[in-house]
Amino acid sequence: MPESHASSLPWKFPWTIELPFSLGEWSWEAPVPRENRHKKTIGLFERFLRHLEGVKQEEIIDTTPIPQTATLTPVREALFELNEKIASLPDLENESVIYKACEPYLLDILAMIEAKTISADDLLLTLDPFDEYVKQQAPAAVLDNVLSKQWIAIIHCLYATRTDAGHDIYGGHVWHQCLKSVLRMTVQPLTCDLLDELLRHTRQYEQVHLEPSEYIELMQAHILFEASQFQQYPDAKLISTHRLRRNIYLCRMFVLKGSAPTSVYEQLYHSCRDMGNDQTERRTITFHMVLKLASIPGLSTVEFSEEVHNILANKGWTEPEAWQFLAIRLMNRSRWNLRPEYLDQWLEMPTPQHSWAALLHSAFHRHTKKRRANLRALVSASDLFGHLGTLLKSARLIRSHRRYVVEMVKHERNSVFALAIWEAYNEDLRNPKKLKLPWQAWVRHLDFIMTDPVVPTGMIFYIAEFHPNSVPNKLRLGRKKTTHLIDILERIGNLYMKKPGLTARSRTRWLEKTIIFGQFSRRPVPLSLIQNYAEVQFQELDQGRLGRTSRFKWLVRKIKECYGEEQARKAAEAIEQWRMANQKPWREFMPIFDRSEQASDQKIMPILGEGKQTSDQEIVSIWSERKQASDQDVVPIIHDASHTEDQMIERQMKAQRRSVYKTPNQKSNF
């Protein structure tokens, strides 16, 4: 619009546009009234709407109830009349009579709450409605029961009159004082019901940040309250969902202010433990302290373990007690996506073992990151309290139980603990070989398993499944240059070459097993495996150990496939020469490779005439000549049907050995 301009910089809310003419007076009303727009925080758009409605900023901030004045408020008048009426009652030990006398007072308070005319200070006065005369005449348990009934009705009325789930016009200070008053009451069922209702209806309010001294005071009162209730009713159900919910809601709502030191929890424990009279009471206090630690939001797995160790509370817990720790810890670690309502579902299982399995099933989230955190919290806590075997045995009740154990082992950072998980998983099984885990689960722990001197040499083949028909042949995401099955087999072969304390024969057997799995992998056998195998075989020949001929045949065949025919021929000649040099004079020489074309033109060793008897000295001289020929790079005689002279020599040597070293009544030693 001509001759119009915005407000001057810097722009601040509300914005204005100056026009060359006046638009006149006008008003605007939002489609939804302000009292029906439920906003936890007032954003920029909401401020803009309220500015258009003419609501001032001071009215937005001032949401507290009517403050207490110096004059006598209606609540004080109602309390004065209530105490006069109760004092005139003949029987102050009858709970129903006292509650009947309090009904008019309670109706007045509820009417004030519905009309929103009661202040925070007046609301706190209703926590202590009885004067000193009434407290002296009536039993404390009776008055606490009456007060519990009154406040349960007050809490329900407050909950019904709120505008949204998180709407709290009184603030955390009021609820802090309410909790302190409730925890000072006599421990009885109706008082516990009041505590349940108070924590349940305020669970969606904003967190209340307390100083360390206030935090210790509140949590100490709650721990002693729960411990005394457990002592009064020892025959109650061992696992109480109400007790677990109270711990969860209380620890979620009241937290330490700022970056308070973790030593606060240790101070809290010692202050509560000193109040225990005997070992049973101290154990009960320790149990509730561990529940507190498991319910504290933001406490990592490592920090939780450290705090439990600091208070020496990691031993001596039964399976039901450990289950409660794990259940709360799992809900906490899931950031309360697993709500407290899951407790009833887990406990409705037919057996306690199924309840443990239900924890595992709920922890298996569809997202990898959340699933990893949940399972790690369960496994770490179960091992901390000495019930890792119970958790893993319950996993067998799940249909695809191997997936759960694979996830635990795969993402475990400690290799020793990963092996402990596998051992607990296979405990008390007749055939644990059937429960091998896929090789993908052990990629992270391979170096430790292969190099640690305590771990048995062939452990990797005992715990890992390598057959491609049973497990996938490829990783979804490569790790440490390991993508396919053949990659991890190559690493295993290299680690066997570095593993100390193995004999050459033992190293050969493990390399052969690795190569066999490599042949099943449907991919070419790596050159490093063949090189390692050839190195071990040549070391054996160099030390005078002949080994099996089938191994040399396989080695030459693989050298031919990988390096060509020329290299295979050279390797065959070298192996033959080594074998000839290591032969003993009285043992038969059986060549294992075919004659090459170049060997026919070479110098042939001297042979004996047909039908000629050979003495021991002649046999020794023949083999000495062969040894000299091998030292001079002379190709040995190759076993072939066309060379009848060679066959004749061998037959004569066999006959001579039979006549010299064997008698009719004595078996041969060879």
TrEMBL record:
Protein known as: Uncharacterized protein
